[in-house]
Amino acid sequence: LFSSLFVMIEFGILTLRLLFLLLLFTPMVVTAPMADVFDQKYRKVWLRLVRHTLEFAGAAFIKWGQWAATRPDLFPRDLCHELTKLHTNAPAHKFAYSVKTVEQAFGKKLHEIFEDFEKKPVASGSIAQVHKATLRYSGSSGAKPRPIVVAVKVRHPGVSDVIRRDFVIINWIANLSTLTPGLRWLRLDESVRQ
Fold it and tell me: Which pLDDT score is estimated for 142?
């Protein structure tokens, strides 16, 4: 009974996510055929729309866009150039979430582990963000050693479940895209397999 209930809930969540993604990607897909018809200014606007759509869609789509940016053999060069911006512009989560996650992982308060823990992340990617920190010295010898500066990588909230669900949806959409003449040039099925 519990297993059946879990499958039904998961299917409901997957369906809602699919509906959200369909609404999110509709403007990009509908305007795609016009990207080559109008002037370069329109194409640049459309390319920015593609990037922003992938950013808003979440980690799996950002990762796909980052990968696509490295594949000018599969995708138009101007699209690859625009998607390279996904390598540096990923959104960060709140500092309070980082603190809570690190404290849960180590079973100690942040100040017990680190002398210093920078609030602003050094970098934020599609899956996690990195904070610079200095480990607290806990030795017993008289001479205090040099501080050890470390990078603390904290996964974004719920990212694992979202990625898993998104890949189910991405595989389904990639297979459907091969049947749509206007989307075949994206070669989504091939890129998802890779």
Answer: 62
